[in-house]
């Protein structure tokens, strides 16, 4: 009996390890910036390079910072949801147009609609590095006191919004009141 | 290509076909060389250059996770190499450069993660597993030894 017990225990231990391990997304890397002050930035605006946009613009309020680019297929996927968010919530969405061509990006917004209060144009990815961006799309939830409450990698969807973003916003609002 | 080679039966023809395979193969690898990243020197100072090459081969490209940023031509790898060059030109030490990356991207960005609470399991697990394996081996070997001793006592009994 005990001869079978040892392998049985080992299998019983390994199965949950594999089940958890295989269901995790290896491309999703936990950001060390979570629950820390969001990096400050100031960049030329995508549509109007003579003006800048940056972290100062959303100081003191909730904001979403969405990293996007026209070469990013998944960004197209989440675009309609971003438009919906912009219409239906009072949380401003700031774009970080990352490693893109300005003309392409402007055309994209003209064609598909512009959910962003403003998009910052991060041509060489410097600001992206400060934010620990390693792919697009990425969406950061910033609290009024400038803390990164959550970071979502991959397209934003209604489901993710309700599961991850809304409770955090509600919790942070409750605390400040 | 491979199909064609198999299709040929006579020896002479086969040789010609194999040669034809070599041309694209050579081209393929030559193309890889031509695309090598930062082929030229980045720093004039050989010491700085050596440090730079060492750092970029220790940093993971997070988009293409099993490549170092030395081997990758992804946007991100390109940006990170540029940042590393900038930091080094500013006179930052290797440790400061790694710090810069880890505070933004986490321990995973380093191929050799540092010892910390979070990464401790990575460092300890191999030794732990070897120890467990050793214990199992010792137990199994001991078990077999007892069996053979039992056999001996059996034969002793027969002898006596």
Task: Determine the mean pLDDT of chain A.
Answer: 93
Approximately what portion of the residues of chain A adopt beta-strand conformation? Answer: 15-25%
CA-based shape of chain A:
elongated
Assembly state of the chains shown: heterodimer
Q: Would you kindly provide a brief summary of this structure?
A:
The complex is a heterodimer of chains A (177) and B (160). Chain A is an alpha/beta fold.
Structure, described:
- The complex is a heterodimer of chains A (177) and B (160).
- Chain A is an alpha/beta fold and 177 residues long.
- Helix content of chain A is 41%, strand content 19%.
- Chain A contains 5 helices and 7 strands; from the N terminus they run H-E-E-E-H-E-H-E-H-E-E-H.
- In chain A, strands 5-4-3-6-7 form a 5-stranded mixed β-sheet.
- The model of chain A has no long low-confidence stretch (mean pLDDT 93).
- Chain B folds into 3 domains: 1-35; 40-114, Helicase, Ruva Protein, domain 3 (Orthogonal Bundle); 115-160.
- Chain B has helices at 2-7, 11-34, 46-56, 75-89, 94-105, 120-159.
- The chains are: A alpha/beta (177), B mainly alpha (160).
- The A-B interface holds A 26-27, 29-33, 99, 124-126, 128-135 and B 62-63, 65, 75-76, 79-80, 82-83, 102-108.
Q: How is the topology of this model organized?
A:
The complex is a heterodimer of chains A (177) and B (160).
Chain A: H1 2-23, E1 42-44, E2 52-54, E3 63-68, H2 73-88, E4 93-98, H3 102-112, E5 118-122, H4 126-130, E6 138-142, E7 148-153, H5 158-176
Parallel strand pairs in A: 3-4, 4-5
Antiparallel strand pairs in A: 1-2, 3-6, 6-7
Chain B: H1 2-7, H2 11-34, H3 46-56, H4 75-89, H5 94-105, H6 120-159
Helix pairs in contact in B: 3-4
Which labels suit this protein?
heterodimer, A: 177 residues, alpha/beta, Glutaredoxin, 5 helices, B: mainly alpha, Helicase, Ruva Protein, domain 3, 3 domains, 0% strand, disordered N terminus
